Amino acid sequence: MSSALKITLILSLLLSAGCHAAGMAPRKTLAPFASEQALSSYLQQLQSRQAAQQREQQKLQGATAQYMSAPPPAPMVAKAAPAASAEAAESVTNVQTAGVDEGGIVKLHGKHLVMLRRGKLFTVQVGGKALQPVASLDAFAPGSDPSGSWYDEMLIDGDTVVVIGYSYSRGGTEIGLFDIDGDGKLAYRATYHLRSNDYYSSRNYASRLIGSKLVFYSPLSLNLRRGDPFGGFPALRRWRPDAVPSDFKRIAPATRIYRTDEDPEMGAGLTLHTVTVCDLAQRDMRCEATAVMGPQGRVFYVSGESVFVWTTRRGSDSGVFRIPLDGTAPSALKVAGAPVDQFSFLESADGHLNVLLRAEGQGDAMWDGTRGRGDMALLRVPLASFSDGRDSAPASSYKALPGGGGYGLQNRYVGAYLLYGNPGNPGRRKADQAWPRQPLYAVRWADGGSVQALSLPHGVERIEALGDDAVVIGAQGKDLHFSSIRLGAQAAVAARYIRADAAQGESRSHGFFYKPQAAGEGMIGLPILGADERPGLNKSSASVLYLRNSGLQLTELGALAARPGQPPDDGCRASCVDWYGNARPLFLQGRVFALLGYELVEGALKEGQVREVRRISYAPIASALR
User: Fold this and answer.
1) Model confidence at 416: pLDDT above 50
2) Three-class HEC string of 11-40
């Protein structure tokens, strides 16, 4: 069946279910289990049903084997998922939602930058025009074995530095707490382990910080075939040298575990979609969790008040959970299709959830966010329409959109618009071949208005906001293009800057930063490489490029480059691959910096050009670590 037919069929089914849509039924929420006994009985029933199904499958396989030379396929099993607040200080992180900070590799604490790299924390003084390394410390607990662990994200709340990692050897998310003082000195405080599956995504981030609340979304695949299914439930322990698995204490009682009206698909896996909120205002961290039992799927979006989790059953049936951060009961809605990634979501100020969908998707675990295919649609539903999971979003809440959800599709909400497009094929073409123009689609999401297709001479590899307008960045052959997009009553391409023989050096959203300086004025920073270079997880970008935005006219200000040559021997013991990148543009108190691996380079704007003023290396010296 073609994707077009699929989406038509889905919409017709939703239309038939429209009598259950919100607005025609009282608002409801998901129901929790009444007690531990009720939860245990339910899990025992699922275990019995799964065991019976397995016996039937074995019988069928045995009979079929008499007539077939090749064995039948095995049944499907659960797929294990391979700072103060941002408002209180000058932000150095390109976040999706204002007031919702995201775990990153560099943050600001007072007059110090704090960097997380290759298993260590570093501080560099930048206040008072200084540029001086101050301190470094292992990002893991003293005396612990960091092998098999990755330390990926950092957040700062007040004088607490939080390091988020994943430990394959200890089995879950690792949360390290460190103290930082006004002089930039670091001290280890404590380490906690949060039971979870691997959280890695090439596009999303595992942690958020809202005020002093540390927020995680953790998918937990339940294995009902083992004796104790509670061994996979949300739990937390404080690390100590003699820590054992029994130290984990559940943080989601049965009365905070919810389910929908649909029975789990036998053989398709069962997941506890868990939102954990930890209070950093207390020195001894306390965490509480809310979990919804449902099918797999782990595209999630964090607004200021809720976490939205999109799940997909076999076929095209999907569901979206709304899990409030205040611990109140979650709600849900039956939906169709799949979002691209977290940037497909917008909880808008008018009380709606807006989601860009494609007919088929696999979530955003690992690199799955780049995959997906089929017809496109915009879902727009009132938040009040979420209920106990029995209701479906009506067909009228879907707006069919042009374009196919090809590999690497990019999407972003900017002001009144949803923008999306594909990177195309940025490789070399023969001299006699014209470069195919790529469409950038602009949708006015709020009023269901017109959809425009703007023609670009380059692919769409990145979409970012420039205040109320946007910039689209992508390759055309060996050149990197920046197209500014004016977003008024109509969307229009305003201007273009071309950097010859260049490519993006970072694909993550945090690699870009825009610093507004006045109405319609500001500076853009983006790591770049030469067109023939390839981004490497173990090397820095060649340089950070800076552009001036003046009324959407883009002009080059110059670049701050990394020092050529081999990186220093740092004696790395953990997290020795830069999965989250290692280059960032930084704008602080009117100063311009480029973070390039272990180098921090400062530039100054002179005669319309950014020129290097000085640089420091904050790298540890391996010989001093032995």
Assistant:
1) yes
2) HHHHHHCHHHCCCCCCCCCCEECCCHHHHH
